[in-house]
Structure formats: C-alpha cells, structure tokens
Amino acid sequence: MSTRGINFLDRWMSELLPNAVTDDPAAICDLVGQVLRAAKREGIDRDEINEEVDSVFKVIFDAMQHREGSRAEGDESDKTAEVALDLLAGRLVRERQALPTSKPKT
C-alpha cells in the first residue's frame, strides 16, 4: 500500500483547490483531470491514489462542498482562490466554445 498517492492528493488539494463551493460536475471533472495530470507529471500513477481513495471525484466533490468558511475572511489566500476559480470558469467557457459541433453522419 502506498501513501505517496494520498499524500500527493492531499497536498494538491490544500494548495490548488479553489476556495469555493460548487456541485457542478464539469468543474469537479476538470479538477480531477488537473490533479491526475499533475500526479502523472510527478511520476505518481493514478492507481497509487486509487489505492487510498475509492473516487478522486468524490473526494474533490466533498472538499468543494466544505470549502466555504474554511479560511479566515480577508485572508490573502482567499484572493488567490478567487483568481483560481475565475481562471477555472474561464477555461470551462473556452473549452465549451471550442467543442466541435455535431455533424450528421454521411
């Protein structure tokens, strides 16, 4: 059993998870993708994370439900989290706009 995966997930979430509440599956999926790509860049296989948690999606979803009020109001990290959330929202909009339109099969 590896603790490296859960330690990475915990560190990533504490440093990069936006300080906002959301239940938007698209936003959560984007965050899951980000954490798994970051883990891969550090040589951590998704199986190392999955050994410790049943679902990365559920872990991030639950964390996002409990983000509000987790930091002192006016904390400098709140501004950083707001910027991160704005970047995430902008990225989602750009990705949705870039999706190809459906073409009928010929």
Describe this structure in words.
The protein is mostly helical and 106 residues long. The protein has five helices and no strands. The chain has helices at residues 4-16, 25-41, 46-50, 56-65, 76-98. Helix 2 (25-41) crosses helix 4. The longest helix has 23 residues, at 76-98. The protein is globular.
Rg over CA atoms, rounded to whole Å, is 16 Å
Given helix and strand content, the structural type is mainly alpha
Number of strands: 0
Biggest sheet descriptor: none
> Helix amount, in percent?
55-70%
Order of helices and strands: HHHHH
Low-confidence stretches: 69-74
Oligomer: single chain
- With helices defined by DSSP (H or I, 4 residues minimum), what is the helix count? 5
Q: Quote the beta fraction.
A: under 5%
* Principal-axis shape: globular
Mean pLDDT: 75
CA-CA gap between termini: 51 Å
SSE layout:
Layout: H1 4-16, H2 25-41, H3 46-50, H4 56-65, H5 76-98
List descriptors.
106 residues; mainly alpha; 5 helices; globular
Question: Gist?
Answer:
With 106 residues, the chain is mostly helical. The protein has 5 helices and no strands.
